[in-house]
Amino acid sequence: MRIVSFKTPKPKQFNYKPRYYDEDKEALEQKKAAMGLKAKVTHQEGLRLQMSRKWHKGADVEEKSNLSKFISYFVYSTVIIGGVYLIFFTDFVYKLIALFGIRLGE
After folding, report:
1. Between the CA atoms of 22, 25, 31 and 32, what dihedral angle is there, to the nearest 10 degrees?
2. Which residues in 12-51 are b (16+ Cβ under 10 Å) and which e?
3. Domain boundaries along the sequence of the chain
4. CA angle 60-62-64, nearest 5°?
5. CB 73 within 8 A of CB 67
6. Per residue in 11-38, pLDDT tens?
């Protein structure tokens, strides 16, 4: 016995229209469009080509940024190692404290 009955929706229709796809022809058209020659490329495909070109240009920038990251990490690590050396292996800290007039260990 059902107390509440809901209306169940009918399943949506599947509308499949097969198309012929020639991968070699598509690649040739994209190469023509990339070189600026006349090609049968739709507006959306043209935008996709422009985006892919810009993304590939961005990869070069990313490599440069990796180099700059490496340089900055090298500089930071050098400063940290130098600071640790000054603190633990020299009397720089004691001289700095004595400069302010504080006497330690007397």
Report:
1. -140
2. eeeeeeeeeeeeeeeeebbeebeeeeebebeeeeeeebee
3. 67-106
4. 75
5. no
6. 888 787 777 777 877 787 777 777 776 6
